[in-house]
Design a protein that fits this description.
By secondary structure, the chain is mainly α. The protein contains 11 helices and no strands.
């Protein structure tokens, strides 16, 4: 073996043992650990944000339905099965027959009839909307703002009002926070299922207005962040 080959081997060994070559690998390990920490922190923050959102929605739900925290904790007011509240089947019948007097009397005694549901998971609001009973719907909206609940087919009261071409009910629901963006299980919007051109136009205007408002909110949030 000549001198040149020996010196080449020595240089190679020295190069491999040089810390400047090893350092990037060590740095990479540290970066990976830091990346893991960042990911865990992000996941934790996401969980906290999700819990906060659930809590805020729960408080809004209680407030909109005039349910106190004490009632929620001790009286178990939220139904877990169809017609859970005693007398709720009679209340549904009164709604279906457009019996305004009976509906008013029942709600004066117990407004929690409005959060009951039937075997299709439809609430009294669903029934009033799909039958076109706008006077009963007006009464309901004095007691609750829970207008975007959906049944087993993901249909809201607004969706059913549009499907059955009940313009006054559509107007009432939109005025009280009805969401024209919510699709049913088939992926259809309320605008698509109505055959009344004036209702289609109403829903279209509402959707465009909501979209514009969302854009404005996003712009404000971006300005705050910057």
């Amino acid at each position: 073996m000549n001198r040149n080959s020996k010196s080449f081997k020595k240089k190679s060994i020295d190069k491999l043992s040089d810390k400047s070559v090893i350092k990037p690998i060590e740095e990479r390990k540290i970066d990976e650990k830091e990346l893991m920490r960042i990911r865990k922190r992000a996941e934790l923050n996401e969980k906290r944000a999700r819990r906060k959102k659930i809590l805020i929605n729960a408080i809004k739900y209680l407030s909109n339905n005039s349910i106190s925290v004490d009632e929620y904790v001790h009286k178990d007011v939220f139904p877990k099965k169809p017609f859970q509240l005693r007398g709720s089947e009679d209340f549904f019948d009164a709604v279906k027959f457009n019996d305004i007097k009976v509906v008013k009397e029942a709600l004066a005694k117990n407004e929690h009839y409005l959060i009951q549901f039937d075997y299709f998971k439809q609430t009294p609001l669903h029934w009033a909307a799909k039958l076109g009973y706008h006077e009963i719907l007006k009464i309901f909206l004095k007691y609750t703002k829970m207008v975007n609940v959906y049944d087993k087919e993901f249909r809201t009261p607004l969706f059913l009002a549009a499907l059955n071409n009940h313009k006054k009910c559509v107007e009432l629901l939109l005025e009280n926070g009805g969401n024209a963006f919510i699709r049913d299980k088939k992926g259809e919007l309320p605008e698509a299922v109505s055959t009344d051109p004036s209702i289609k136009l109403l829903l279209q205007i509402s959707s465009e207005k909501s979209f514009y408002e969302l854009n404005e909110i996003n712009k404000k949030n971006q300005t705050k962040d910057s």
